[in-house]
Please model this.
Amino acid sequence: MNPSLLLRATGVSAVAAFGLAACGSNNNTAPVASNGSPSASSSCASGSVTGQGSTFQANIEKQWISDFAGQCPGAQITYSGTGSGAGIKQFGSGTIDFAGSDATMKPDEQSAADKRCGNPALHIPVTAGGVAVIYHVKNISSLNLSATTLAGIFDGSIKTWDAPQIRADNPGVTLPMTAIKTYHRSDGSGTTKVFTGFLAADAPSVWKLGSDKSINWPSGLGANGSSGVVQGVQTTDGGITYAEVSYAKQDSLPTAKVKGAQGDFTEIASSTVSQSIDSGFTVTGTGNDLSGKLDYTKMTGYPISTVSYVIVCSHYSDAAKGAVIKAFLAYAVAAGQAQADALGFAPLPAGLVSKDQATIGALS
Model:
């Protein structure tokens, strides 16, 4: 899979199915239209907009763009999965109309985005998902990994799959002496920030490398984009990485059950991700900005869960672009949430959708 995934909306749409099994549902999610049509809060607009950034949200963006184009053929939307850091940078420089990011902007990035817009740039959560721990170990199809064990694996201190820490997480399982080969993102990645944020919060006694979109990794191999790290694991016995779960599904790779500060080893699923967002995510932004904080120590479901944002201007000087972005996002956070389960994402909680709709309604 090309790490620079390019997604384009056209009047006639056909979507290649990834063959992902639907996850369980959660009652605390936004009501969505069963036929996938735009909700009453969305409308069509004509014009072209471009976006790039988060590879984490790229697969659901592809579905949304295709579906929205079939209903609003006058809208031309392009999204390229280049990584959250690249998306934020290009948005701040004014070369794209919206960015996808799994992390909120740093102060200097926010200043650049505000200057580009000529008004406040806003974070809008558009989807939720778990960062899956994806592995490839011969004859091992089920695996438990605690936060402290993951921290040791990715800082390079745990070197083989039969290490005592991994055996302790998996009693009764025969583990091979195979060397562990970690793959991490070489590009600036919101997924990296989420994953390392979890390690810093839930395994502070082991993880000393901090949390950011880029990390000074002491070991392992770097690759560009989620597709790059997953491709590395797919071809490497003993490989392990972190990425959005849809990449594991499409390449038929197993994912580990993970144990954080709360609960037991938990499988990544729509319902367990929604549970964690409900218990661990809080909006901290002011005004119409919906940036928020993830508290991994409070997550009671799958513990490496996150929201993923679209970053937009409050007001666009090009009215046509503003209208397309507004209509597209109104679709994405309402009817578009119906696509989440089948693609390995989790629908946003209803309360967060309501906040999204208020912010989107104020865009121009």
Notes: Residues 5-130+273-297+306-361 form a domain with the D-Maltodextrin-Binding Protein; domain 2 fold (CATH 3.40.190.10). Residues 1-41 have pLDDT under 50 and may be disordered. The chain is about 30% helix and 20% strand. The two ends are 36 Å apart (CA to CA).
